[in-house]
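Researcher: Go.
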Amino acid sequence: MKVALIGSQDFGKAALEAFLERGDEVVAVFCPPDNPKATKPEILKEATLAKGLVPLQFASLKSPEAADAMRNSGADICVMAYVLQFVPQELAKIPRLGTIQYHPSLLPKYRGPSAINWAIALGESKTGLTIFRPSDGLDEGEVILQKEVAIGANDTLGSVYFDHLFPLGVQALLEAADLVAASKHQEIVQDEALANYEGWFDQAAARIHWSNHITQIHNLIRACNPAPGAWTMVGEQKVQIYDVKKHVTATYGAVKGKPGQITAIGSESFFVTCHGGQIEVLKAKGAAGKVSGAELAKSLGLTVDQFFTA
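Model: Structure:
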């Protein structure tokens, strides 16, 4: 099969390598333009060069030059793997078998760029991936293939993506491409009654409000680990919190402190009160970088009874 790939970063690289390793001919690789502010080269671009291919970098995939490049590649199918640029239908429909795209949610739920973050933050017990036909709407095209993934009680953004949705997604792209090539696939229109779209899980969304319930705070921290990093303030210092444990308070008599208050500092961690229990902070990041909770407490001079602010 002649494959054109549009993508970026590690997922794009993994998809490129997977198609090549099984014997497909990758006839075009579209990468984002070089970013002069980036500290390291684009991973997919470097992988493309390493495979002896020439990366195609267009400022816009809506340009006639991008369409000509796709047309001249003679691709049977186009695969979109972590795409940061808008891909118009004029380009997507050029390959003989059209284009397929990966998205890390069970569409139509959690359309948008931060699907995994939102699913974890909102307490979902499962998520998944979808391979679908891209349209001019964001994540709105017909579904070809879906696979479910459980979200464990202590899973983070990192564990859900890197342990499950990343490797499963690469294999799903191969599977979906084969189904399309053999005309054994179905294209199911998304049910708009079940649809929701969320934007970026940004710094504002990642801020910890200690007056919220312990389950909400625990889910938020997991959803932000490793990025963008749930955060709070102590005085004028911003602190990002990563690895935590949830300790539920079962009785009124067991309540310690008030929301946001540090109630204990141990050899490896420290505890912060919220409604419903305490969050034990195991890993956090302050001015000195990412350290254990105890090391952060020492470096910032934190004391028992001190408050983090929302």
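Model: The chain has a mean pLDDT of 97.
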